[in-house]
């Protein structure tokens, strides 16, 4: 079966090749633009040296027609060139937005959610940069030899002045890079890290406010912000200093070409027309270099954004199948599963194996930190196992194409997060809502009446700031979302943590309904009440299966207090029971 979306390296290489083609085309257009930019100085030269001397209106008219035609062509080519950059920016966004978002989501599972928003910010930065005038300046600078050659053609001294001016600007450019690049890069990295940290922390605004944590957090942020601002100030100050020197130098260069021209005219070596034309040509020759020095900050920021996007795409380890897998109704096989978080020192899941049949309900219990939630995430294919795998009817749940896997699985994580949208949209998993399936899921989860009591019923928006769902309400709506379309595999991580007796009864009825429909249900719970309905129990301890078997075979583990107590004398090996 075809595996994975386009690998990052192939995607990046394809994009770079496309960009090289786009830049070559834009470079050709820049060549035309630069040639046509000679129109004004040439027109001035001809008017001075021919029209005024010959007093010929016909010559003036002819020159005017040619010049206006050339300028119209210049405008057209300039427009086409800007459209080329616009198209390149749009291709970048269209090709990278989704892969970058996917990479950000999968990286967020391991490293936190800041990655996703940063990836979008970086792509926007790149898009603006490519569509801006800054990217055109090196292409214009490339053709500066044309202007230099024309200056030499006017007089070798004009050429020398032009060449010297160019070298001085290049030197200023190198100095500017040396003085500003590092400071700007560090300021950018610190800015990105600090925004990510602040946005991650702000998700816990309630805790921050309730426990008066803001002053402590503010001083932490302030320290980082100050470090960032110091680097930014340093880089910007140096950049502005060089930009001021550049501007003053350019004016001095303009003066020197005038002075040189005056000497040459006095000595009758050039005509008066060349003086004006040479001055304009020198301006054109130096303009792109001047702009590059002024825009250098944009280049540094764009390079940093591209580096982050490229690294994010290349770091994406999740390679899923791209072809949807058909619906199945078979065993769930967990085979020698081992998982160690990236960068973490401990192995959280250490060789877990067991099998469940359709229609079976498993209670997954164990002390805090035993690895229950991690095992649940591995089962629903959120995390990639280091060794072994999870197979539903023989299909690997990690590799499964996510769209079709979504139809097969219902997952209620420990901390339920409803997405921005209505209750109906949330239950329908943000797809086009199917009213019948929504009502069915709500009925099975026992939340239809609860939703009916909300301000706008199923159309109540969970992001509405005037209204807030309680923890139990969120959990029960999350259960309806997990049961939407009655999936084949339902994984519920502490679904009764916030439930009252009525909610717990609804949960038990929902689990029974899922069992009757032939679904495999995995239930993680500390409270013993819901454990009475499970068929099998798996006790996880320090990432290993301590016991696994029918509920009746595992005695003494569920006490009224919900504490798991094992009878070490009667272990039931996992493989023996599942066989
Ligand atoms: N991404 C991760 N990076 C580092 N350690 C992790 C990661 N995910 C889980 N762990 C560690 O794995 C262990 C098991 O965590 P897990 O959340 O699976 O436990 P649990 O059995 O569900 O606990 P609880 O009953 O308290 O919810 C913990 O020690 C946790 O710190």
TrEMBL record:
Domain ABC transporter: 332-567
GO molecular function: ABC-type transporter activity; ATP binding; ATP hydrolysis activity; ATPase-coupled lipid transmembrane transporter activity
Keywords, alphabetical: ATP-binding, Membrane, Nucleotide-binding, Transmembrane, Transmembrane helix
Pfam family, one: ABC_tran
InterPro entries to which the protein is assigned, alphabetical: AAA+_ATPase, ABC1_TM_dom, ABC1_TM_sf, ABC_transporter-like_ATP-bd, ABC_transporter-like_CS, ATPase_T1SS_PrtD-like, P-loop_NTPase, Type_1_exporter
SMART domains assigned: AAA
Subcellular location: Cell membrane
Signal sequence coordinates: none
Biological process according to GO: protein secretion by the type I secretion system
GO cellular component, one term: type I protein secretion system complex
Residues spanning the membrane: 23-45, 57-77, 146-175
Domain ABC transmembrane type-1 as annotated: residue spans: 26-301
Database matches in Gene3D superfamilies: ABC transporter type 1, transmembrane domain, P-loop containing nucleotide triphosphate hydrolases
Membrane topology: Multi-pass membrane protein
Annotated family: Belongs to the ABC transporter superfamily.
Entry-linked PANTHER family: ABC TRANSPORTER TRANSMEMBRANE REGION (PTHR24221:SF248), ATP-BINDING CASSETTE SUB-FAMILY B (PTHR24221)
The protein, known as: ATP-binding cassette, subfamily C
Species the sequence originates in: Bosea lupini
């Amino acid at each position: 079966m075809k595996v994975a979306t386009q690998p990052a390296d192939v995607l990046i290489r394809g994009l770079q090749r496309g960009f090289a083609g786009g830049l070559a085309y834009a470079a050709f257009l820049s060549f035309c633009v630069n040639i046509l930019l000679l129109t004004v100085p040439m027109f001035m030269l001809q008017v001075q040296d021919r029209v005024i001397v010959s007093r010929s209106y016909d010559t003036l008219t002819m020159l005017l027609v040619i010049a206006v035609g050339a300028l119209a062509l210049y405008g057209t080519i300039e427009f086409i060139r800007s459209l080329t950059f616009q198209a390149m920016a749009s291709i970048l966004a269209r090709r990278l937005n989704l892969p970058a978002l996917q990479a950000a989501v999968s990286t967020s599972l391991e490293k936190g959610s800041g990655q996703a928003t940063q990836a979008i910010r970086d792509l926007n930065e790149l898009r603006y940069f490519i569509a801006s005038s800054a990217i055109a300046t090196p292409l214009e600078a490339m053709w500066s030899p044309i202007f230099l050659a024309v200056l030499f053609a006017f007089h070798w001294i004009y050429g020398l002045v032009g060449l010297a001016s160019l070298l001085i600007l290049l030197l200023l450019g190198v100095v500017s890079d040396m003085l500003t690049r590092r400071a700007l890069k560090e300021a950018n990295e610190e800015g990105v890290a600090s925004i990510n940290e602040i946005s991650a922390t702000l998700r816990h605004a309630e805790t921050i406010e309730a426990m008066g944590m803001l002053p402590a957090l503010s001083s932490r942020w302030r320290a980082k912000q100050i470090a960032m601002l110091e680097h930014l100030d340093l880089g910007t100050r140096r950049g502005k200093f060089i930009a001021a020197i550049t501007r003053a130098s350019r004016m001095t260069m303009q003066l020197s070409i005038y002075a040189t021209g005056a000497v040459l005219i006095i000595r009758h070596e050039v005509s008066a027309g060349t003086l004006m034309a040479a001055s304009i040509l020198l301006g054109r020759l130096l303009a792109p270099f001047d702009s590059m020095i002024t825009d250098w900050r944009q280049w540094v920021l764009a390079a940093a954004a591209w580096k982050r996007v490229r690294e994010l795409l290349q770091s994406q380890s999740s390679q899923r199948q791209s072809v949807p897998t058909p619906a199945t109704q078979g065993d769930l096989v967990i085979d020698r599963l081992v998982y160690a978080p990236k960068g973490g020192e401990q192995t959280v899941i250490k060789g877990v194996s067991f099998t469940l049949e359709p229609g079976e309900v498993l209670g997954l219990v164990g002390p805090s930190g035993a690895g229950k939630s991690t095992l649940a995430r591995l089962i629903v294919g959120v995390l990639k196992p280091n060794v072994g795998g999870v197979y539903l009817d023989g299909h690997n749940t990690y590799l499964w194409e996510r769209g079709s896997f979504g139809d097969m699985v219902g997952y209620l994580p420990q901390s339920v997060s409803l997405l921005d949208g209505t209750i109906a949209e949330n239950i329908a998993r943000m797809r086009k809502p199917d009213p019948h399936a929504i009502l069915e899921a709500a009925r099975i989860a026992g939340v239809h009446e609860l939703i009916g009591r909300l301000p706008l019923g199923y159309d109540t928006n969970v992001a509405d700031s005037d209204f807030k769902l309680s923890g139990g309400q969120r959990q029960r709506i999350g259960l309806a979302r997990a049961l939407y379309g009655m999936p084949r595999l339902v994984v519920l991580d502490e679904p009764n943590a916030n439930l009252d007796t009525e909610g717990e009864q609804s949960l038990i009825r929902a689990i029974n309904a899922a069992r009757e429909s032939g679904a495999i249900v995995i239930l993680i719970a500390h409270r013993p009440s819901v454990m009475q309905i499970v068929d099998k129990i798996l006790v996880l301890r320090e990432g290993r299966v301590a016991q696994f078997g029918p509920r009746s075979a595992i005695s003494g583990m569920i006490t009224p207090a919900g504490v798991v107590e094992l009878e070490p004398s009667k272990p039931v090996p996992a493989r023996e029971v599942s066989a």
